[in-house]
Amino acid sequence: MTKEYNIRKATGQCSACRKCLEPGTELTATVTEDGQELLRQDFCDECWSQASGGEDKDVLCVWRTRVPQPAEKKKLFIDDELLVNLFERLGGDDRDSRINFRYVLALALMRKKLLVYDRMDTDDAGRDIWTMHLKRQEAKHRVIDPKLTVDQIAEVIANLGEIMEGEF
Ligand SMILES: [Zn+2]
After folding, report:
1. What is the Å distance from ligand 1's center to 52 Cα?
2. Å from CA of 97 to ligand 1 middle
3. What angle is formed at CA 163 by the lines to CA 159 and CA 167, rounded to 5 degrees?
4. Which of 14, 16, 54, 86 is 20 to 30 A from residue 45's alpha carbon, by CA?
5. With 70 as the cut, is the pLDDT of residue 54 above it?
């Protein structure tokens, strides 16, 4: 039932002008949909100021980051705000890959105590649906439990790490 989640990694180049982004360079990163894939793209400031990438409906999220120094490579840093943003953007998307991704995001946000579990119901298709809310927010979020195995969850987490930090 689950589909492989293909994510193309960051390349260490500006996605528009192909300029090499040296360690320490500030950049704007986006995650967009591209068919079956989620695509991470990095833009140098010059290109980003000329683009309107953030307005694109296929852009799932946009964030500012910087190219890590080689010694920092192993240190995975994922911004909470970014996780919440992705979680919200993926709501209502019923494709298997997105459901899996969002479920794992929900687990991560619960661990960080940013997302609170309210109750579970079963929908017409027999799926378990969690009702959740973000800390200090009223809005209810519906999260489908795709019944992933531990291995599948680990794989989605690895992909999440790749998309956020890229490999330079
Ligand atoms: Zn550029």
Report:
1. 13
2. 30
3. 100
4. 86
5. no
Residue ranges of domains in the chain: 6-165
Q: Is the pLDDT of residue 45 over 90?
A: yes
Report how far ligand 1's centroid is from the alpha carbon of 103 (Å): 34
Query: For the whole model, what pTM was predicted?
Result: 0.67
- The 10s digit of each residue's pLDDT in 102-115 is 998 899 899 889 99
Instruction: Please give the distance, rounded to the nearest whole angstrom, from the Cα atom of residue 49 to the centre of ligand 1.
Output: 10
CA of 66 from ligand 1 middle (Å) equals 14
For residues 101 and 95, the answer to whether their CB atoms sit within 8 Å is no
Q: How far is CA 3 from CA 7, 66, 96, in A?
A: 12, 31, 6
Q: What are phi and psi of 75, to 5 degrees?
A: -80, 115
| Cα separation values, 84 from 70, 89, 114, 124, 127, Å | 28, 9, 8, 27, 23
Lowest-pLDDT range of 16-20, 35-39, 163-167: 163-167
Q: Taking ligand 1, which is a single-atom ion, which protein residues have CB atoms under 5 Å away?
A: 14, 16-17, 44, 47
CA 16 – ligand 1 centroid, Å: 5
pLDDT digit string, tens, across residues 58-77 = 677 778 888 877 766 555 45
3-state secondary structure of 150: helix
